[in-house]
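Appendix B. Chain record.
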Amino acid sequence: MNLAELLRQVRLLEIVTRDLVKDVLAGGYTSVFRGRGLEFSEVRDYRPGDDIRTIDWNVTARMGAPFVKRYVEERELTVLFLVDHSSSEVFGTRVRTKAELAAEVCAALAMTAVKSNDRVGIALFTDRVERFVPPQKGKTHVRRVIRELLSFEPAGVGTDLHAALDFVNRVQRRRAVLFLVSDFVAPPSVYRAALRVAARRHDAIAIQLVDPRERELPDVGLVTLREAETGRWMFADTSAPGVREAFRRRAHAVDRELAGTLRQDGVELIRLETDKSWVGPLLAFFRRREQALRH
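Structure tokens predicted for this chain:
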């Protein structure tokens, strides 16, 4: 992709997501992602109605009159996207590929975060972490993040979620909102140890990318299939109901295992499909979080 085409795609993606960020996502984002707590602001003289627990006794003793400490909410956050760019991500049979879906939703979330004056960073991985852009603030920086999402050409073909999570656990010491974006084709047992560490340190959210053809086989007779990450070829008789049913059951079993593992480890799951809008599932996630925060 040449520079002119890249800049055109960046601009197009900004236009497509701009109204969503301003009118739909911004309110939900600020409601469910909070800062690290309260930050000291100033000391001022005591006024009737002030909570006596906020009295600063050292200043009060020094000044001979009561003074209280004032705090403000520390809103600033760090948002880090850990995005899978293995070969299986270029698969897509309907509206878009999984990689294109990842770019859309990450761009919208990144622009929403920057609108809230949060820092945004990104790590792109395959069987290794191939690109890392440390978190920073500002519209110029978020455009760089979007450019990386659109222009990145991976060297690796496989997926190593454990290595990617381990990288984040080493480089991101400060607590962050961590979006882990992948199709999660690897068994959870492969990366679970690193996932547990990340879930303890960060507010971790998994975004699972799914294409309909990965869940249901069409009845089109004998087909040849190639596994994108291993290059392995196989044959399947899709005209046989038993073959289609076994494929469907296995796919849904993988989804159940992933959802159960994430739930046990305290990681929330957003499931997005390439042939559907990602806005609804994202807003549903915001609503779930808002309800949980009220209780």
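Further analysis of this model is presented in Appendix C.
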